[in-house]
Amino acid sequence: MTTKPSSAKIKPYDGPAGGWGSAKSVTEITLREHIPIKGPSLLATQNKPEGFMCVSCAWAKPAKTHPLEFCENGAKATAWETTSRRADRAFFAKHTLGELEQWPDHDLEEQGRLTHPMRWDAATDKYVPVTWNEAFEEIGRELRALDPHQVDLYTSGRASLETSYMYQLFARMYGSNNLPDSSNMCHESSSVALPESIGASVGTAILSDFENTDCIFYFGQNVGTSSPRLLHDLQDAVDRGVKIVTFNLLRERGLERFINPQSPSQMLTGKETKISSQYYQVKNGGDIAALFGLCKALIEADDALMASGASKVAGDDARPKDPDNAAMVAFAASIASADKKHVLDHDFIKEHTTGFQEFAQAARAHQWSDLERFSGLSREQMVEAAATYAKSDAVLTIYGMGLTQHLMGVQNVHMICNLALLRGNIGKPGANICAVRGHSNVQGQRTVGITEKPGLVPLDKLSQLYGFVPPEWTGRSTVETCEAIMDGQSRAFISLGGNFLKAVPETEAMETAWRKLRLTVQIATKLNRSHVVHGEIAYLLPCLGRIELDEQATGPQAVSMESSIAHFHGSRGKAKPASPELLSEPAIVAGIAKATLGETKVPWDAWVGNYAEVRDAIERTYPETFKDFNKRLFKPGGFARPLPARERKWVTQSGKANFLTPERLFPELSTASSPDVLHLATLRSNDQFNTTIYGYSDRFRGVEGTRRIVFMNKEDIGSLGFADGEIVDITTAIDEDTVRTVNGFRIVPYHIPKGCCGAYFPETNPLFPTAHHDPKSKTPSYKMLPVRITRSPGA
Ligand SMILES: Nc1nc2c(c(=O)[nH]1)N[C@H]1C(S)=C(S)[C@@H](COP(=O)(O)OP(=O)(O)OC[C@H]3O[C@@H](n4cnc5c(=O)[nH]c(N)nc54)[C@H](O)[C@@H]3O)O[C@H]1N2
Ligand SMILES: Nc1nc2c(c(=O)[nH]1)N[C@H]1C(S)=C(S)[C@@H](COP(=O)(O)OP(=O)(O)OC[C@H]3O[C@@H](n4cnc5c(=O)[nH]c(N)nc54)[C@H](O)[C@@H]3O)O[C@H]1N2
Ligand SMILES: [Mo]
């Protein structure tokens, strides 16, 4: 069941990001979710100290707030959670799961909030009501009967620090490190690469960097849709004269122009802010080549300047003395900082880094023709971008999924660091690295122990505090869990939020295997496909959302999360719970833990009665990171997590920041010389939050009424023999022993480089083999998959 292409409207969008389109979209969803009165008053406390933290993205919450500190998509997320619609007893009495399997994702979630705990009944093929105790007892019994190696405990990035800490503790006391999480599909490439390069596991940027920077380099992140509040920081920077240099596969409206919908004067006058001053449409997977191009230009300019005698660096013999390129000398002279006569920051490189010579040699050795071919950019464009970079004293580098979800995702992030290190653009005001995170607490979950890697967790502390021996084996990440489910090694799946079956690769084979699981337990707010397709014994356990009042034994509770800039914030729900039968996430985790583990040293009930005690436990486990946690919970602007790299202290093996040189410019692909193969990037529309499909409108890209579209370059459409609007199938062009196809996609001509195409996630997830991931981080290569496009039979 998909929206028919006949109801679709494709028309280029001329407006800016934000503006009246944004205001209209917020009104529409508040009305549709039947919350015209409750909505606006709740929204006034969104992202404010003592208010609730948005359930949409993880962007920073400033200390000095605007009157309304939310964006279009944050408002949509609030409306979606506080809807007055209910998937209640009557709904589940009416529909079998076989029937619900035929429903599209949008329609499942659109039924509204889940109201009561349920167990699948084989005789009727329906979810039937159970008591919470019955649920916990049976889940505990089943888990005790299984080997902990056979159980996977997934977390989607929304659960609070308190819930996440309890959940990982439960998993480890049960005996499992199988803690895959949504981060494994998202910023895992950052979690692997940043510690290797700069000794920090997260980005180093803070909000004041936006006030101090004089140039922003912006890679592979769709700000207008994925983190619209960040547009305010970009807009303020542009107003100060800051240049924004963007590298993106597509021309994304939010990176082009913006009208702040909360500024009456901008709304009335229609005055737009031009966001990017330079915009480079790089091919997907082409960032390593593009970044090498920038670094090569900088390094060779520096070489040229030095060879021309304008400056000297002691002991630097690796430099070519006679560059054949007079243009480079002129270029170098034009960008060398007036006092130093260098393009690179040699003092910083010498004092703070290792690996420069090897990296510089690799950059010099790459041929411009290769860099141009893989990046899709011209030499002139790369040199032009390098010049802007070199003329700036403090460069902030921002990036997202366009870099991490790649076969070479880890190396993409290494290259971001390499570029920054060339001119000391880390750890000084205005110069840092900003990894824009997705889910609202995905970064924080890792901070409190949600990880399959036991080495990242203070196991000795857990052992000492709770008197047990934590497992030391490495658990399964998301793609490894998929493999374990498909080969039968995994027998039970517990899900703390999320929609695993839809978000992962290889979704068709996964569904078949998922049905063979002994046990599936889903803790969720709304119905989705991972609940409808289920194991032999299946529970659907509804929880409170973050926006709702969470009343426990000691009164209303607060929870906390970590933003993209590594600040911790308290959050207090205010809305009336969707149903009196809901439990909070901490209560559900504690219920399952007690039923599974029996007597332990953990005061589960006291924790559920008072979350401040969980925060004390977190502080005892991580004393430096969470010093005075409860006292600082509602500090305006949040309280900062200590990050040594921000102060140029490098917690790496070498004790320095490391230049790390990618061994190749582009992944090795068996289809490299197949002219009919395009590289597919999977995208989010402006009307979805991951697998949650709010509606069928991607306003900024001019797509209305359908999600089954494929964006293609006009020339590719012609040369492959297709026409605008034609209906096609998309087939994976690697590992062709298994046929992976999705059908009925409408061709939309788009501003996208030749050889590339784009389509929405999760509709295209059946195309991704689980093995198609970065080997080091295991992040699926969702931004580049070789595919073939063919005419749909009968279309
Ligand atoms: N409204 C809304 N907000 C969200 C989400 C949502 O689904 N909806 N999801 C949340 C989550 S979990 C996450 S992780 C973030 C995701 O937010 P983003 O990091 O913005 O990820 P995507 O939306 O997938 O888009 C990635 C961008 O990279 C570009 N791109 C694709 N391939 C390449 C490439 O190879 N190189 C370069 N340079 N660019 C490329 C695409 O054109 C696109 O603009 O957003 C979070 N916020
Ligand atoms: N092809 C492709 N695949 C991708 C991506 C891509 O770019 N391309 N992106 C990847 C990324 S970055 C991510 S993060 C993953 C996302 O993967 P997930 O995090 O697993 O998926 P979501 O769609 O965010 O989960 C939505 C569900 O969460 C539940 N939920 C919502 N709020 C709450 C709550 O407060 N508590 C609980 N317990 N449940 C709640 C609801 O039931 C809802 O249906 O997808 C990944 N998959
Ligand atoms: Mo994500």
Number of DSSP helical runs: 33
Name the structural class. Answer: alpha/beta
Mean pLDDT figure:
93
Strands of the widest sheet, in order across it, are 6-5-18-17-16-7
Q: What gap, in angstroms, lies between the N and C termini?
A: 17 Å
- β-strand percent reads 15-25%
Describe, in plain words, how this protein is organized in 3D.
There is one protein chain. This protein is of the alpha/beta class and 795 residues long. The relative contact order is 0.17. Helix 9 (188-198) packs parallel to helix 22 (409-422) and helix 15 packs across helix 16. The radius of gyration is 26 Å and the shape is globular. A six-stranded mixed β-sheet has the order 6-5-18-17-16-7. A six-stranded mixed β-barrel has the order 25-33-30-32-31-34. 35% of the residues lie in helices and 17% in strands. Bound molecules: ligand MGD (2 copies) and molybdenum atom.
Task: Please sum up the structure shown.
The protein has 795 residues and is α/β, with parallel strands linked by helices. The chain contains 33 helices and 34 strands. Helix content is 35%, strand content 17%.
